[in-house]
Amino acid sequence: MSDTPAAPPRRRRSWLLIVSLCLNIALIPVIGAVIVRAMHRDVQIGSGGILAPRSLQTAIPSERAAIQKVIDAHTAKIRELRRAAVQTRIASFNVLAAPDYTPEKFVASLDAVRQADTALETESIAMMADSLKTLTPEERAAIVEKVRKRNRSWLYRMFKPRFD
Predict the structure, then answer these.
(1) How buried is residue 15: exposed, middle or buried, by Cβ count under 10 Å (0-12/13-18/19+)?
(2) Structure pTM?
(3) Domain range summary for the chain, segments of one domain joined by +
(4) How far apart are CA 7 and CA 4, in angstroms?
(5) pLDDT at 18
């Protein structure tokens, strides 16, 4: 047998492991940020978008009381519709898990989910419309301008079609 020295380990594998480790370490804060944002998501009634009543309260503090009255007027119905939407989803899953499952029963349960979601969305849009009714034309124009500015990021402008 010959006494040849063993080949040195390949350096490429070491570099790949180091790069992989660095990418994994960089991924940890991203995952943390996603978890923190999910934990602090605003689920109050009237929140959830730039035209949502709570966003309008923040944008136009002088109308806070009037908008709060609108939110209060819709809160009970929205809570009930949310509860109904959850219950229809549970019922739909139970139909799927039932031993006597049929596609027709499941389609009917999914139709009930669609109807519950539609009712909830309809009430939410009605609340948004009612809160926008409390604003003066100048306040509405300010909100529209705010939305337009928000949508004018450099990325939006870069991909916007130009017809000039």
Answers:
(1) exposed
(2) 0.67
(3) 50-149
(4) 9
(5) 87
